[in-house]
Design goal:
23% strand; globular; two-stranded antiparallel ribbon; Rossmann fold; alpha/beta
């Protein structure tokens, strides 16, 4: 069986591409780190991949707001190619700034189950300033929810670092939140070390509504989250590793293994 091919995008301001590539490679993927300009010039590059990843960082300096410039670039120049990619089974992951980019692109609210040239619906979700009014850079916990991305197990809990100033997930209204729940789009929620959902700061590091740390689209093939699983790949990544039970790997590696496995069926 051939390796799952992952295409990792880089552009000005993205600075988490190195650890993202390492996490994917350790999880068994064949990784191509590619500048956005090459994909814009040759959108067909997506056709030979099963997984498209947008790493964290500060794309284009987060001008205007976090992820907006790159999100609008994807929406303007790559929307058709990404729609085809997802419709034929491809997976997309956005972490931290990559999640912000995907939200700005409007992909979470589009119908990606089939190829379409229809306009994207109005955007009813956003990632905005942390309620703490500060950049949160520390370790938290997140818990998986039963969602459309079926490789994410309900109740799966892991320690992960966060590093963001605009990570608070918000919705336009209660109807939007209810729609996310009904469509099984809520993938990850902040929790405490015991797995109890985090209602308030500091376990909920940004004040996200419904403690949402990550969501997927209704197909389950587009996923975005604010925490960084790729920064918890080895046992020694966690700052308290000497006081933890012996571990052969960091908890984030399981995240990438399961993602790569799910994406391996893209060409099946």
């Amino acid at each position: 069986m051939s390796q799952t091919k992952a295409l990792v995008l880089r552009t000005a301001g993205i600075n988490c591409d190195g650890e993202t590539v390492r996490a994917l490679q350790t999880a068994g993927a064949a990784v191509e780190l590619t500048h956005l300009d090459r994909v814009l010039a040759e959108p067909a590059r997506l056709e030979s991949s099963s997984l498209l990843v947008i790493p964290g960082g500060f794309s284009y300096g987060d001008d205007i707001s976090a992820g907006r410039v790159l999100g609008l670039e994807l929406r303007r120049s790559l929307l058709g190619a990404v729609r085809r990619f997802v419709a034929r089974g491809g997976h997309v992951l956005g972490v931290c700034n990559g999640f912000q980019v995907l939200v700005e692109s409007g992909l979470f609210e589009a119908d990606l189950s089939r190829e379409s040239s229809e306009p994207l619906p109005p955007r009813n979700i956003s990632l905005t300033n942390n309620l703490s009014n500060r950049f949160e850079c520390r370790w938290v916990h997140m818990r998986g929810s039963a969602c459309a991305a079926e490789w994410i197990e309900d109740g799966w809990t892991m320690p992960v670092p966060v590093a963001h100033g605009e990570g608070r997930f918000v919705v336009r209204d209660e109807a939007t939140l209810e729609r996310l729940i009904q469509r099984r789009q809520i993938a990850w929620r902040y929790c405490d070390a015991g797995g109890a959902i985090a209602g308030e700061y500091p376990a909920n590091p940004n004040g996200a509504v419904h403690a949402i740390a990550g969501i997927c689209d209704p197909t389950g093939r587009v996923l975005g989250l604010m925490p960084h699983p790729e920064r918890n790949i080895t046992p020694h990544n966690h700052p308290n590793w000497t006081r933890m039970p012996p571990r052969s790997e960091g908890e984030g590696l399981r995240f990438y293994r399961r993602l790569v496995e799910a994406a391996s069926h893209a060409h099946a």
